[in-house]
Give the backbone structure.
Amino acid sequence: MSGVRVLVGTHKGAFILTSDGKREKWDVSGPLFTGWEVYHMKGSPVDPNRLFASQCSGWFGQVIQRSDDGGKTWTQPGTPAGEPTAAPGGMPKGESNKFVYDSSADSGKPLTTHQWYDGSQHPWEFKRVWHLEPSPRDANTVYAGVEDAALFRSTDGGKSWHELSGLRGHGTGPKWQPGAGGMCLHSILIDPGNPNRIFIAISAAGAFRTDDGGKTWKPINKGLYSQYIPDPRAEVGHCVHHIAHHSSRPGTLFMQKHWDVMRSDDAGDTWHEVSGNLPTDFGFVIDVHAHEPETVYVVPIKSDGEHFPPEGKLRVYRSRSGGNEWEALTEGLPQRDCYVNVLRDAMAVDSLDKCGVYFGTTGGQVYASADAGDSWSPIVRDLPAVLSVEVQTLP
Amino acid sequence: MIRVELPAHLRTLAHVGKEVQVEVAGPVTQRSVLDAIEARYPMLQGTIRDHVTQLRRPFLRFFVCGEDWTHHSPDTPMPDAIVNGSEPVLIVGAIAGG
């Protein structure tokens, strides 16, 4: 019988929630990586038993973990203890937590700098991995979106990582700047039919696309309007919170920006606003129904200064028309005194029939809907603050 | 053998107990001890010192024979009690945050 595995990253470890296809009874396992922040966990579409996790801490930095048995056991995919850490030629082997930005081949100096909070230029400094995106074609290939914003790729199952530095090197890097959560690359969408086409998004720079497998990138922010930057229609500098698409229509993109819910039907070349009748168009998450490419979900948050649902009512909004017309989904969600946030990577869908929708809150609840959002119930209520939610649909 | 006590989270990562022992060739210093730790336990690379700058991560401190050696030069020779193994080097995580 089919089932689902929900991968939950939290402020103090990771949890795996499993159920059969009915999605009524849940088994909760964890915490994994106890005491560490787990920004993201995601499974390989090629081998569902292969999971990657980003484990980090303010004390000890970044660690990448991998499981090859569906989350039962985990290892750091690097050199085992006691084995040589250098190759025979003396070159150090890569380790699973080593993310080193490319330097100029000519000068050896940093490729570029970015804008700091005071407007000065600041060098890139690695802090953590926000998002891991396993390749849809190769179980050993996985992409990492990091802070300070850059894209890395591993082709050896997470042991060693190499920057796709054409993203920072295209020329706009000096205009990128950190948002309140840091300067992070948080969204990675791979075109399932064309692995050379990848979309990414950065706070606060905007969305970018490559059509050559990551060598060159172009900003795709035309149509975005951000009142809080000097040129509201600038090529880069927009605080994009998350982007999503449906695998059957990878060129149709949906975006939750700092303010504004946006849509593009030409692979990001142009965007238009589809906030419509939302009570507020500020928010973090956005996702698309597994079987209906025009059905989109967001969780409106009151404002940039007040990161909680309007009126203390936790409501998911669903549009069945690709935006503009939104309906509030409230059944089973708290409709009073609720002041949690739903962070940008904390919503996901399964591909069962009916489509399941899941999201986690900063209050530690993970809510699930087994009927495409019509009704909700909590799988767990008291986890640490939820940073990310991903779902695997298992055969 | 040089004895080193690791903070709890790093013991979990390295699959070791409270104390590890490493051999250090040449002068026993903060740098040579950390080099030996990272060579023996490669999963700890980057967790005590930054991969690139080799600087101590800000929330970790080093204690030697009851003294705070955090800001000593990494090449300062350590006392005999460390060299002969009668005292361990302590790597301590700051008590900070949640």
